[in-house]
């Protein structure tokens, strides 16, 4: 490839990933036949990053593809043969576009990547950042803001099921998520393979956005999917070469550690039982996984056949990948750290976050300084603060949005004018000027997302009800929401912006809400602030382009997740009826049923679910009915309705039979569930206990070793748990991959 063309394409890709304001797209200076092609590509970069779907699809250069994506053509394709027909037409259009003219295939592959990106950005705008785009256009394949409750989106929801986990039924614009997944080959198809250096990162972003769109997705372990985990995390640290193996991203030691921590999550029961674990600790290896084209659990099995290869030397990434700017490298590493936390791989979070700090030349620490926290306090005490230092010159806070502002932040005085609690600690006069600057300096957007990642790590790895943990989160959040005393304005026609990025500031407020709900002095402010975060979704300013810049890296939740959190807070405060109505509005039926059961309204819960099943039966509703009536027949019905894909039905059956001491049935149900989705540590453990009671010791050893490979800290608690299952004279061989030692447990003790 021509060096100038290669440089232009890579800089264009890094510009799409950048958090910096303004256009960073390089000038076209490639010469030859590719000059026109590169000029066309350059025009699409900024609209793509900003999620301006109509602008991108209206470009004449993309006519070969956009003609298939027009509303009329999409409706006709769906009517003719549903999603498979639309997919086939899109594949042919994309192949035709990529193959002509000769010599510019890489440029056109980048254009197809931009289409995948703009679909993803629009989907996130509709569900996470706002503001809602109401203006419809004939060039758009679907309505820009319609919910999934009506056609054609309702027909797309089943296609967004992943590893037996259904999508949330009130997603906005799910068709755009499906299109993005299609372009990034997350949906099985014959789409042209894209070869850009940033493609793996956008593919991972799309996979994680899909993961967060599932109905029961939770950072506490439920609704997590191995296929999306593979695309969103594992593929970034594996391969030949791994996308994150380039210089400036992550060293070989950290990469191997993350590989060793992530690979075990992808092993199903079938795979685990076919290859019993070794007692000795294997040296972390670079693992290469080939693309699987099959569907369902067969695809997962085919993918796992490539695991455990012989050790090999680290593959070197192309030198040109090193050209990624430090801010881009730091952003990609923070996103990996956030996903590791979300999937429960908290022990390797530090490896990724440290690499991000090194790329940026940024250091921070939680420390104590003398100061006061109350208005009339006279005695100074140590206050927890965050000191932040940057070894590189920073641009500070840039203003690029007309009429921009910070999200509405409620002060304690606004909520309670009699409070004497200060917003932030007032530092002692003895604190030096340099130290004060490190504590009070407003942060750049990239620095903010690093602190937000630390918040997510603490929240995921610690007890969220521990006051010391919440105090630490509060200190980090307060550091993120630190603003300038006076807004900057770059041009006269631009409004003020008090923070580096609107969305990172909002995410800081969200974590502050989480940290303040437990205190009487701040609980009311936290409730009002959470409602304000939900309401600001509809604000016209700042623009969607500004908000979308950090949507993948800040960890800010979707609007329906914020509403779910509000309803959960109501439930914990005893407001069961109010919480029930909120969950009904959100169509989160398991939570709505739980509210009624807690309020001792079981008959009403049963009637509600039966009425819903009559209108629109689904596997989730049948499971809800089974939870209410404790009837395994309803779980069996859910399994049948889902065509034997809804893993939760088998998990529920297994738990039911286990409680009834019907261990053989419980074991078979758990195995079926783990063949579809193996990312449930608790199910592996319960399966091991059941097998142990059945005296099937070889299989029990496999199940318990899977628990250890997922969570090595479970090693200390498993013997005590297994001792509660008395079997005369039983001795169980426990395998620890962490220490490589053999421990014998006598269950009679």
TrEMBL record:
Taxonomic superkingdom: Eukaryota
Keyword annotations from UniProtKB, A to Z: Repeat, TPR repeat
InterPro entries noted in UniProt: TPR-like_helical_dom_sf, TPR_rpt, TTC27/Emw1
Keyword Methyltransferase included in the entry's annotation: no
UniProt TPR repeat ranges: 647-680, 681-714
Pfam families: TPR_8
Protein name from the UniProt record: Ttc27 protein
Lineage of the species this protein comes from: Eukaryota, Sar, Alveolata, Dinophyceae, Suessiales
């Amino acid at each position: 490839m021509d060096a100038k063309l290669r440089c232009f394409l890579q800089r264009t890709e890094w510009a799409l990933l950048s958090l910096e304001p303004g256009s960073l797209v390089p000038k076209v200076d490639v010469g030859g036949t590719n000059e026109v092609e590169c000029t066309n590509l350059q025009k699409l970069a900024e609209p793509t990053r900003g999620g301006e779907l109509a602008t991108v699809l209206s470009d004449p250069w993309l006519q070969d593809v956009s003609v298939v994506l027009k509303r009329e053509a999409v409706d006709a394709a769906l009517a003719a043969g549903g999603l498979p027909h639309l997919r086939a037409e899109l594949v042919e259009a994309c192949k035709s576009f990529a193959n002509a003219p000769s010599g510019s295939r890489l440029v056109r592959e980048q254009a197809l990547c931009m289409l995948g990106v703009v679909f993803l950005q629009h989907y996130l705008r509709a569900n996470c950042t706002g503001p809602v785009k109401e203006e419809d256009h004939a060039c758009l394949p679907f309505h820009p803001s319609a919910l999934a409750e009506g056609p054609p989106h309702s027909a797309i929801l089943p296609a967004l099921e992943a590893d037996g986990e259904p999508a949330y039924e009130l997603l906005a614009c799910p068709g755009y998520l499906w299109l993005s997944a299609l372009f990034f080959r997350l949906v099985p198809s014959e789409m042209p393979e894209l070869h850009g250096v940033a493609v793996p990162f956008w593919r991972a972003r799309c996979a994680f956005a899909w993961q967060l769109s599932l109905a029961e997705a939770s950072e506490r372990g439920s609704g997590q999917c191995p296929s999306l985990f593979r695309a969103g995390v594992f593929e970034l640290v594996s391969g030949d070469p791994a996308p994150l193996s380039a210089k400036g991203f992550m060293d070989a030691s950290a990469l191997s550690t993350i590989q060793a921590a992530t690979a075990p999550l992808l092993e199903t029961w079938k795979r685990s039982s076919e290859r019993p674990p070794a007692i000795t600790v294997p040296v972390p290896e670079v693992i290469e996984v080939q693309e699987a084209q099959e569907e369902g659990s067969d695809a997962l099995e085919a993918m796992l056949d490539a695991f455990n290869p012989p050790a090999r030397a680290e593959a070197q990434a192309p030198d040109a990948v090193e050209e990624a700017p430090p801010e881009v490298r730091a952003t990609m590493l923070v996103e990996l750290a956030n996903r590791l936390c979300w999937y429960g791989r908290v022990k390797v979070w530090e490896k990724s976050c440290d690499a991000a700090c090194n790329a940026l030349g940024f250091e921070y620490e939680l420390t104590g300084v003398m100061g006061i926290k109350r208005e009339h306090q006279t005695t100074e005490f140590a206050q927890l603060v965050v000191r932040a230092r940057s070894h590189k010159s920073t641009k500070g806070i840039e203003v690029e949005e007309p009429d921009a502002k910070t999200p509405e932040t409620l002060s304690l005085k606004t909520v309670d004018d009699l409070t004497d609690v200060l917003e932030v600690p007032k530092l002692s006069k003895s604190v030096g000027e340099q130290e004060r600057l490190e504590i009070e300096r407003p942060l750049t957007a990239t620095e903010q997302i690093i602190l937000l990642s630390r918040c997510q790590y603490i929240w995921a790895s610690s007890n969220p009800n521990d006051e010391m943990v919440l105090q630490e989160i509060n200190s980090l959040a307060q550091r993120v929401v630190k603003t300038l005393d006076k807004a900057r304005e770059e041009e006269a026609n631009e409004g003020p912006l008090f923070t580096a990025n609107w969305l990172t500031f909002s995410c800081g407020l969200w974590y502050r809400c989480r940290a303040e709900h437990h205190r009487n002095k701040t609980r009311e402010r936290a409730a009002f602030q959470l409602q304000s975060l939900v309401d600001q979704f509809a604000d016209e300013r700042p623009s969607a382009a500004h908000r979308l810049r950090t949507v993948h890296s800040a960890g800010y939740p979707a609007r329906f997740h914020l509403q779910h959190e509000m309803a959960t807070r109501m439930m914990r405060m005893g407001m069961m009826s109010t919480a029930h109505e909120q969950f009904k509005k959100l169509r989160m039926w398991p939570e709505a049923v739980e509210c009624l059961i807690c309020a001792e309204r079981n008959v009403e819960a049963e009637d509600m679910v039966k009425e819903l099943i009559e209108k629109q039966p689904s596997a989730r509703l049948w499971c809800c009915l089974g939870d209410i009536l404790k009837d395994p027949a309803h779980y069996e019905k859910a399994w049948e309705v889902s065509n034997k894909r809804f893993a939760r039905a088998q998990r529920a059956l297994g738990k039911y039979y286990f409680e009834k001491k019907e261990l053989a049935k419980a074991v078979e149900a758990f195995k079926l569930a783990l063949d579809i989705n193996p990312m449930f540590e608790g199910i592996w453990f319960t399966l091991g206990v059941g097998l142990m009671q059945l005296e099937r010791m070889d299989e029990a050893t496999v199940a318990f070793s899977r628990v250890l490979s997922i969570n090595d800290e479970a090693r200390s608690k498993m013997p005590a748990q297994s001792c509660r299952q008395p079997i005369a004279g039983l001795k169980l061989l426990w395998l620890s991959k962490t220490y490589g030692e053999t421990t014998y447990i006598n269950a009679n003790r």
